[in-house]
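This part of the workshop introduces the protein records we will be handling. The structure tokens are whole numbers drawn from a learned vocabulary of backbone shapes. The record below serves as our worked example for the rest of this section.

===
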Amino acid sequence: MKILIMGLPGAGKTYLAERLQRHLECAWFNADRVRESANDWDFSAEGRMRQADRMKFYADFEVFNDRTAICDFVCPTEDTRKHFDADIVIWVDTLEEGRFDDTNKLFEQPASVNHHITHHMTDREIEELALCLKLAKADT
């Protein structure tokens, strides 16, 4: 199962991903770490699509080997989200604006998500979400 945790910079994507990863005992790919590894800090439209492609590559490898992967990254447009092709989309929507104007201008609200998070979740809520994700994987 490929899980996308998306939202504006500073919304809490990494916080949520780190905690979910512990509950799900799965692979976790953080956008900043992946960009650092690739030494690619290009945030143009092409750079963002390249980042979506990298995140997809890592996640697909895990899924191909019957493992769950969480990827947390902005994934700001419908095109980048469609390209990433997640099984589960979690939108961390806790900010009206992120800290980068270019991202704010580019960011498109997702047309469809599986989980819409509008507040900073408690540990208990994260545990419940993890259980829900485990059940979703069992159904596939």
Notes: The CA atoms of residues 8 and 96 lie 9 Å apart. Residues 45-64 form the longest helix (20 residues).
